[in-house]
Amino acid sequence: MSSQTPAASQDFVDAPTQPETRGIEVVSPSERHGRARDLFGVWAAPNVSILNFTIGATMILLGLEIWQAVAVIVAANLLWVFPGLIAIAGPAAGTSGSVISRALYGIIGNKVIIAFTGWLVSAVFLALNWLASSFMGADLLAQWGFADPVLGPVAVTLVVSAITVLVAVYGHGLIIKSYTAISIGLLVIFLAVTAFALPTVDWGYQAPEALTGVPLWSAITIGFTILASTPLSYINSPDIARYLPRETKPSHIIAATALGGALPGIFFTVVGALIVTGLTGPQLEAGIESAILGLLPTWLGPLLVLAVIVNTIALNGMTTYTSSMALQSVGVPIRRIPSAIVIGVIGTALTLYLVMSTNLLDAVNLMLQFLVIVSGPAMAIFATDIVLRRNRYDATDLFDEERGGRYWYTAGWSIPGMTSVVVGGIATAACLSTDVWTGPVSEAMGWVDLSVPVGMIVSALVYLGLSKTGLGRFEEVPTARAAQVAEAAQPARAASPADPSTEPAA
């Protein structure tokens, strides 16, 4: 039995006023609390975001008409159902999603996958969001007389990243308690910005060159990929839901998570698409975020910058929090709080590099498109596994990392899981279209980007097919092995005798 156990005998702290001491350890029944609807505010706060304005503007700059952009935005945000679906695994297993995915990829294979989905995706999104607040904070500092183009963004980045890591250190209790209030405050400010910006919208806007045929589908599909990368990146949704009582209805968890992310995402991305129709070329040269600041009264500009910074802290605080558990799940001998600090330092370094080498719009569009190579297949496989297992995950087996354990599979690797994520990633890349890379399928189709649907469908079908073969049979723990596991886990269970982690999910 691994030295990790599904629950530890020590008492863990989960309160908004104290640092959260639990990492990937299982949440016992006595510590379960909250309601599914609490998740709505948790997911709304990160998605009332200036990046929605930026991405919405991109839809128009791709050459789409307003109604076409709105249709693409709504369609892409329907993918929020996937973070909602995989979130139900959190209460079922009572542990982090980065541990639950051992059932998908095997004990060793999972370490490789989490290194990408838990580190690569997280580091990119940390940098993207810190980058947005850095540019806008620097613009505000310039208006106040501090116009240094390097020191301004750097100073804002360092302050915001420090506060973000502090949120991650306090963890789940603070996130659940504060994010609903943060959502309301952000909503008020962003609605005020919308009210002042909408009068500049060109409601009769028509694209300079109306797109038809293949060029139109190329713009639509590229826009869809950029938008889809946001919901598909939230493979950490089980981490936020894991404290909910086991009997919480899965449908309520799915609805609260999906609607919390989708509703503000749709609304403010559409607003971004509308705003850009009334902006001129010179206004856009400094970026959509600076152009929006120029449309606002003097008193509202600083409030928007403050809102952007608070939103960034909310999103990156949650990302850093879940990534700290990802580092634990790959076997690094580190507690969750030091892990959060390490991840914060890495994200800060990447942000500082981007601050001095690129602009926000280019960084957002390029990175979001490339992320789907990893996030799309991983999300599809996780969702497929939940359906196949009927959301039944045994916490004791998930923490059994030795040869012969239930999730050891073939030499520590799950052939269905690893094959499907690799094949799905290749299929995604083959259909991807970016300024840096265009896959052969996309190029043959005239730069039409079908990377998200093709990658997710291929991953799900390969995983489903291989799971029906001998390679995919979930090995039952042999009787002698089961006795060893139960005996080794006994000290942990003594602290929480009512732990239902081995019971089927409701």
Key structural traits:
mainly alpha; Hydantoin permease; 23 helices
Summarize the structure.
It is built from 23 helices and no strands. The protein has helices spanning 38-47, 50-61, 66-77, 81-87, 89-93, 97-100, 102-105, 107-143, 151-170, 172-197, 213-233, 237-241, 250-276, 281-284, 288-295, 300-329, 336-355, 360-389, 395-398, 415-430, 440-444, 451-467, 479-494. The chain is globular, with a radius of gyration of 23 Å.
How would you sum up this structure, described in words?
The chain is an all-alpha fold. It has a domain at 29-365: Hydantoin permease (Orthogonal Bundle). It contains 23 helices and no strands. The radius of gyration is 23 Å and the shape is globular. Residues 474-506 have low confidence and may be disordered.
Itemize the secondary structure elements and their pairings.
Layout: H1 38-47, H2 50-61, H3 66-77, H4 81-87, H5 89-93, H6 97-100, H7 102-105, H8 107-143, H9 151-170, H10 172-197, H11 213-233, H12 237-241, H13 250-276, H14 281-284, H15 288-295, H16 300-329, H17 336-355, H18 360-389, H19 395-398, H20 415-430, H21 440-444, H22 451-467, H23 479-494
Helix pairs in contact: 1-10, 1-13, 2-13, 2-18, 3-11, 3-13, 4-13, 4-18, 8-9, 8-16, 8-17, 8-18, 9-16, 9-17, 10-16, 11-18, 16-17, 18-20, 18-22, 20-22
- The run of helices and strands is HHHHHHHHHHHHHHHHHHHHHHH
- Mean pLDDT metric: 86
The DSSP helix count reads 23
Please tell me what the overall shape is. Answer: globular
Helix content: 55-70%
Beta content:
under 5%
What is the name of the CATH architecture of one domain?
Answer: Orthogonal Bundle
Structural Rg: 23 Å
Do you know the CATH topology of one domain? Answer: Hydantoin permease
Q: Which quaternary structure do these chains form?
A: single chain
Main sheet properties = none
How many DSSP-defined strands? 0
Low-confidence stretches: 474-506
The span between the termini is 28 Å
Structural class call reads mainly alpha
CATH homologous superfamily assignment of one domain: Hydantoin permease
The CATH class of one domain: Mainly Alpha
